[in-house]
Amino acid sequence: MAVLINDTCINCGACIDECPVEAIVDEDDNPTGEEIYYVYGDKCVECVGHHDEPACATACPTEGCITWDAVGESPSHRDDISDDMRSDHTPVVE
């Protein structure tokens, strides 16, 4: 992962069109089976080279819905995000 959509997701779709690398899928294509949107960690680049911060999080109307997560297989990630912020799942936008 890189960013994570948690269970406060209301499936509004605001995030999906903002993703420059098409890393987000809706609840119908969520591989976990949960009824929320999902971010593929091996595609998410945390908008590095595209936006100043992850565009999905700035578009999301639900406070705290999109959080930092472990870098994992992410092809690119933000170096200024601490391990604590990732392990604590700190909201990307507060």
Automatic annotation (TrEMBL):
Residues 74-94 are annotated as: Disordered. It comes from the Bacteria. Residues 75-94 have a biased composition (Basic and acidic residues). The keyword Amino-acid biosynthesis does not apply. Keywords: Iron, Iron-sulfur, Metal-binding. InterPro entries: 4Fe4S_Fe-S-bd (IPR017896), 4Fe4S_Fe_S_CS (IPR017900). Residues 1-29, 35-71 form the 4Fe-4S ferredoxin-type domain. This is 4Fe-4S dicluster domain-containing protein. It comes from Sulfurimonas diazotrophicus.
